[in-house]
Amino acid sequence: MAITKTGDQPPVYKRNWKEKLTPLLFIGPHLIFFLIFLAYPTIYGFIISFHNWNFFGDMSFVGLQNYANILWNTDSLFFEYFWSAFRATFIFVILSVPPLILIPLFIAIAINARPPGQNFFRALFYAPSLLSVVTVVLIWIWLLDTNAGLVNYYIGTLGLDAIPWLTRTPWVWISLVVMTIWWTIGTNMILFLAGLGEIPDHLYEAAKIDGANKIQQFFHVTLPGLKGPLAFVVVMTTLASFNVMAQPQLATGGGPGYETRVLILYIYDTAFTGGNPRAGLGAAMSVVLGMILLSISLIQFKLMTREK
């Protein structure tokens, strides 16, 4: 019986062991990061939501009391403040999400037509997204400050009264939405540009042959071709708007009154500030917000990706 020479190759069992270990080495760093910074805090936060805890003493189990105070106990101040903050968040979402989808979409379509200076405009619209939120808010406070802002200075040169951009409604909402749009449209624009690049040119040529104008091409070629990217952008933009915090915190302080105290800001104030922080109540609010966002995301994704 002839003996087959295997040369310098390792035995089969060693090769199988290495082949199984290699994928684990690649996903290992991310898996460790996920377990430490995402999975563990999420599970621990869910556990805290059933307790009363101020970070300094021991946790005391209160069952569903924290959830009752924000969901169905109408005599609780936390019920009123929670839903007031949710209302403020919802107003911001309604005002910000449509322009954060439509404006980047039309900018992407314009740039995709390859006009002169297309790379300059691509960089111009994307550049603000590289800034931190603190930098963005400081820039817009400098522009919109009622007494010393650049915008009101030029309004004053026209003989008009100064506009309270950061201290009165509805101007505070306009200010927060405008600074958010300026800061974030670049990311959505890049996503739409990537999607537009995947639409075959022959579909537009066929539409032209059939006599379709630009508007008809947009609805019958461009939008169907962007179905996947559009669904992703809608869901992620909605989630980002629901999680808004830094803009109202830094620009308006949640004012005037509590008008712009959004939900994440209220959760932060409840759980971490004041002489008696309520970590359990803040965790319960976070869990409720997470369930709301998960439900909205699933509904949006289902509606955006369903087959006609």
What can be said about this structure in brief?
The protein has 308 residues and is mainly α. The protein contains 13 helices and two strands.
Kindly list the characteristics that best describe this protein.
mainly alpha; MetI-like fold; two-stranded antiparallel ribbon; membrane; MetI-like_sf; ABC_transporter_permease; MetI-like; Multiple sugar transport system permease protein
Layout of secondary structure:
Layout: H1 12-48, E1 51-52, E2 60-61, H2 65-71, H3 77-112, H4 118-126, H5 133-144, H6 150-157, H7 171-197, H8 201-209, H9 214-225, H10 227-242, H11 246-251, H12 263-272, H13 279-305
Antiparallel strand pairs: 1-2
Helix pairs in contact: 2-3, 2-13, 3-7, 3-10, 3-12, 7-10, 10-13, 12-13
Tell me what the structure shows.
The chain is an all-alpha fold. It has one domain: MetI-like fold (Orthogonal Bundle). 70% of the residues lie in helices and 1% in strands. The chain contains 13 helices and 2 strands; from the N terminus they run αββαααααααααααα. It has helices at 12-48, 65-71, 77-112, 118-126, 133-144, 150-157, 171-197, 201-209, 214-225, 227-242, 246-251, 263-272, 279-305; strands at 51-52, 60-61. Helix 3 (77-112) packs across helix 12. The mean pLDDT is 89.
